[in-house]
């Protein structure tokens, strides 16, 4: 039995870009795609009250200050024993180092900061890292900043090189609210958001049910009148403060 007709799965991964030229500096392909993803979105509401607590400006209740703040969490696995035909004298040290350098400045950057400090520079800008993209298929390509990297090493060779590890990775999606106007990352985020809009435009109800009638709101009055049998959407006259 052959499986030649089964397409190979696309790998998720991280691409490091030069923020000015947009050219890839490094590509980190995850060895195994994570089994689960945890995503959270926090709306950036314009009202002054806390979410769900009320007390804000009623004229701002339906307004947004900008894109939602989105974060991702997942567990990635690295295992050099899965590919014994490939020489790995350092175990998975190189792969771990490539991921860890996403949250470290380089030695050259640290030395340059030290040099400026010794020269008496009044203001030294924080070290800027290259633009980081996370890819999960062609429909999810977004600029991110790593917020969490936890490594659990579980197997070692005779030289104590790690051979297997599970990594808990957390990242924040960078939006136009986080990046300066004209930044390449801001444009990439806009493309990511436009992809969401396209997907939302072709969404169809799951389970075969569709239309407002499936919600029990198909009465003559519609949402503005009195649905059949009354209920929460029944008209009750004007609302006054």
Describe, in plain words, how this protein is organized in 3D.
- The protein has 241 residues and is α+β, with helices and mostly antiparallel strands.
- It contains three helices and seven strands, in the order ββββααβββα.
- Strands 2-1-5-6-7-4-3 form a seven-stranded antiparallel beta sheet.
- Strand 5 (131-135) and strand 6 (141-156) form a beta hairpin.
- The longest helix has 18 residues, at 184-201.
Could you give a short description of this structure?
The chain is an alpha+beta fold. Helices cover 16% and strands 28% of the residues.
Work out the radius of gyration.
25 Å
* Tally of separate helices: 3
Structural class: alpha+beta
Strand order of the largest sheet: 2-1-5-6-7-4-3
Low-confidence stretches: 227-241
Distance between the ends = 72 Å
- Biggest beta sheet attributes: 7 strands, antiparallel
Overall mean confidence score, pLDDT: 83
DSSP summary, beta strand count: 7
Strand proportion, as a percent range, falls in: 25-35%
- Which range best describes the helical content: under 10%, 10-25%, 25-40%, 40-55%, 55-70% or over 70%? 10-25%
Order of helices and strands: EEEEHHEEEH
Shape: globular
Topology:
Elements: E1 13-17, E2 24-29, E3 38-45, E4 64-79, H1 93-100, H2 107-118, E5 131-135, E6 141-156, E7 162-173, H3 184-201
Antiparallel strand pairs: 1-2, 1-5, 3-4, 4-7, 5-6, 6-7
Key phrases:
single chain; 241 residues; alpha+beta; 3 helices
